[in-house]
Structure formats: C-alpha cells, structure tokens
C-alpha cells in the first residue's frame, strides 16, 4: 500500500504533531536549529506554518516567519525523506503562498555543506546575499 503525501497548515494547537516531527528528525537536526532557541509559541508569529505527512507520519516542516522586518523561510525533512521530492513540494507551497500574499522578498539561511538544499534554493531563484560565517550563507528570493 502506498502512503499518501499531504501538506497541512498548522498552528500551535497542532503542537503534538510538530513535537513528533522534531523528535523524529534524526541527523537533519544538525542543519535545522530553528526550535533550539524558540518555543512552540513562535508559531503565533508565523505567516504560514506547514507539516508534510506521509500517511499519518509527519515527515517535513516549513514556515514563513516575520522577524526583524523580513520574511524568513524555514524548511526541514526527517532524515531518510530527503532527496525524494517532498522538500520541493513544501517549497512550492510556501513560495506560492508568498507570491499570492505579495511578499516582496523571502530570506533564508542554509548551511553551506547542505548541498541538496542549496541546489534546490538555486533552482527556485534564491540568490546568495552573503556568508553569515564560515558555515552558513544567507539567501534571498525576490517576488516572481
């Protein structure tokens, strides 16, 4: 039986599913540190927060967050679910929402060694703005 892929908008009322995702993230946590210093209540500040599911299992996460006068995109996949096209589907959902909401710029930070993510962002018209430090780069995408 093939499990169905779906994307669901969430709020902090869906904290249990989000916590399940965070607990199962595996080695991907090394490059997705968003919740290291933020409580679940940060979702109140998001323009959009998503969980991607395979069947009933949360396998991916995405958000558009407004912080510091900019809209920031964050995305993460559970270890073992990268490279299968699920991240691209989450990105498409987030960027369609951003374009339909007339958000002029979308910013993100990414670890340089996360080559798959950097490649995906390049294909989606993100450009390198600067190196934040020796391991992280900042990227930006202008409204399409």
From TrEMBL:
<dbReference type="InterPro" id="IPR000182">
    <property type="entry name" value="GNAT_dom"/>
</dbReference>
<protein>
    <recommendedName>
        <fullName>N-acetyltransferase domain-containing protein</fullName>
    </recommendedName>
</protein>
<feature type="domain" description="N-acetyltransferase">
    <location>
        <begin position="5"/>
        <end position="144"/>
    </location>
</feature>
<dbReference type="GO" id="GO:0016747">
    <property type="term" value="F:acyltransferase activity, transferring groups other than amino-acyl groups"/>
</dbReference>
<dbReference type="InterPro" id="IPR016181">
    <property type="entry name" value="Acyl_CoA_acyltransferase"/>
</dbReference>
<dbReference type="Pfam" id="PF00583">
    <property type="entry name" value="Acetyltransf_1"/>
</dbReference>
């Amino acid at each position: 039986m093939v499990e169905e892929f779906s994307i669901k908008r969430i709020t902090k009322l869906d904290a249990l599913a989000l916590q399940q995702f965070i607990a199962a993230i595996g080695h991907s946590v090394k490059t997705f540190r968003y919740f290291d210093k933020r409580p679940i209540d940060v979702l109140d500040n998001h323009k959009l927060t998503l969980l991607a599911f395979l069947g009933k299992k949360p396998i991916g996460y995405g958000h558009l967050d407004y912080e510091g006068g900019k809209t920031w995109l964050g995305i993460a996949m559970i270890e073992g679910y990268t490279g299968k096209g699920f991240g691209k589907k989450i990105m498409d959902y987030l960027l369609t929402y951003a374009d339909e909401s007339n958000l002029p710029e979308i910013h993100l930070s990414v670890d340089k060694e996360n080559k798959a993510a950097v490649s995906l962002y390049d294909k989606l018209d993100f450009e390198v703005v600067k190196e934040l430090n020796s391991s992280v780069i900042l990227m930006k995408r202008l409204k399409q």
